[in-house]
Predict the 3D structure of the following.
Amino acid sequence: MGKLYVVATPIGNLKDITLRALEVLQSVNIIAAEDTRQTLKLLNHYGISGKKLISYHNYNEKEISEKLINILKTEDVALVSDAGTPCISDPGYRVVKKARESSIEVVPIPGPFAAAVALSASGLPSDKFLFVGFLPNKERERETDLGEYIDLGFTFILYESPKRVLKTLNLLNKLNPDADVVVAKELTKIHESFIFGKPIEIVNFFENNLEKLKGEFVILVYPKKEKNIDIEEILKEAKNLKKEGKKTKEIAFLLSNKYGLPKNLIYEKIKNLEI
Ligand code: SAM
């Protein structure tokens, strides 16, 4: 049995390849690649030659996966995409799934992943995040999905084509004008840049610099929603808890957890509350 190596490749700068990735690409005879011309550029750059490249796209994935599984019964195969990590907004999932089902060993060779590269340098909260990838094409679905991600309240990451960057930023402005947004452009390449601001500020920036709407983009969003706080409701609840015999400190703790507000703030509001 061969092994299926899932090999991450650079997202721009060809130096961003690991020693292990080069070792694997050198050792296998067969490389399943998305666009064989793109992969050849990488192989040529590193002086790797004599490989059989099999073209593997979203539209021939089913048929080629079967072919690859047959090959894997006797020898190793490396799977690469045009850039970054295969299977992430890229083809590969089917062959990995089939390999798993056929008890073929799958070995990840980690490397660049544009979303993580962008997040690491964005300055947005990164303790918890959602990777979305490309939004759907249909307007209504895009809006519904974006609304859901905004409601989650933590950073989410979109991939976007240059044609749709402005559209997406305008939609963000409509749904969450206070969000903190970072547009990461052309990561690891000569024209790498990060644009920061509220959605409308970034819209204005691109509208004044239309020539900058070229290249590859990651959009990172940290949603911000004004909490609709009903202070009367909080005081009513605090009164009831006091009637139950709870201490002011405990009530402040309970309500701060419930409403996501600072404990001290609630304490100040309820400390002189008469029951
Ligand atoms: N598999 C890749 C990965 O690991 O990130 C993603 C491939 S997906 C088809 C291509 C999208 O990834 C682009 O449209 C862009 O949103 C993002 N992307 C890839 N390379 C990038 C780069 N150098 N700078 C900014 N975004 C990039």
